[in-house]
Q: What sequence folds into this?
């Protein structure tokens, strides 16, 4: 799972016990006023709104492993089955969270110059957008998440990948991966669309508070004997929910 670690999952501990709907305050920015001697202050109205998070995503993978398959297979069949089921659940969760990033309607869209190809100027524009909101991208709570094609296009930007600009073989062109760009962790996920259709969102730079996520149970795996199938029934499941809270803290990179 890639995206869960990039968004606000602080509700996980609360939702484990009970509840299926959370009302998340969207705190408005307060303003300071000038205090005049001998004059009472006037209380400001509370303008906080809220986002609602509903735990309603119950995903499961169910299959039966026949005895003959287990007997005739090479060792490790069950472990492979479990790994594949877990991956399916993780992929579904990442797809769900990327849809919440897509749900941002702030208008913080940056058009790429060509489909699924990002530039250093695009990244700098996103940083400026977040800094205008007093969000410091280097504080550890901002991430860059792009599709695999956009991630590959980063290697064409010499400022980031040219080995002559890095010491000790640390350049992405040598290591094959990006750790950080401009102090921002870089991630790639196939959950972000690689379509070349006009207007497709190819990546995001966002603060973790933009999306809130809560996992109530799982991922868990249970098994039971199936006499009728002469095999083992296996089910893996997870229960979670999420919502877009501060959509203006999401900068979207969009195909032209």
A:
């Amino acid at each position: 799972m890639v995206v869960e670690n990039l968004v606000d999952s602080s509700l996980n501990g609360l939702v484990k016990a009970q509840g299926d709907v959370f009302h998340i305050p969207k705190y408005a920015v307060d303003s300071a006023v000038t205090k005049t001697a001998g004059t009472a202050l006037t209380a400001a109205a509370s303008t906080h709104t809220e986002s609602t998070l509903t735990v309603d995503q119950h995903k499961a993978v169910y299959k039966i492993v026949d005895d003959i398959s287990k007997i005739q297979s090479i060792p490790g069949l069950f472990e492979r089955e479990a790994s594949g089921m877990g991956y399916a659940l993780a992929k579904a969760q990442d797809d769900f969270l990327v849809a919440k990033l897509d749900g941002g309607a702030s208008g913080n869209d940056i058009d790429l110059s060509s489909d699924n190809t990002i530039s250093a100027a695009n990244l700098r524009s996103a940083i400026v957008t977040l800094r205008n909101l007093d969000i410091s991208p280097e504080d550890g709570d901002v991430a860059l998440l792009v599709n695999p094609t956009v991630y590959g296009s980063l290697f064409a930007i010499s400022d980031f990948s040219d080995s002559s600009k890095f010491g000790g073989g640390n350049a992405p062109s040598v290591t094959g991966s990006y750790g950080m760009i401009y102090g921002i962790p870089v991630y790639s996920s196939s959950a972000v669309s690689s379509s070349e259709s006009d207007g497709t969102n190819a990546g995001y730079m966002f603060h973790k508070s933009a999306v809130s996520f809560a996992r109530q149970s799982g991922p868990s795996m249970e098994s039971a004997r199936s006499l009728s199938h002469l095999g083992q029934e296996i089910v893996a499941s997870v229960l979670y929910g999420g919502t877009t809270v501060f959509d203006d803290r999401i900068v979207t990179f969009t195909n032209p």
Summary: DSSP finds seven helices and ten strands in the chain.
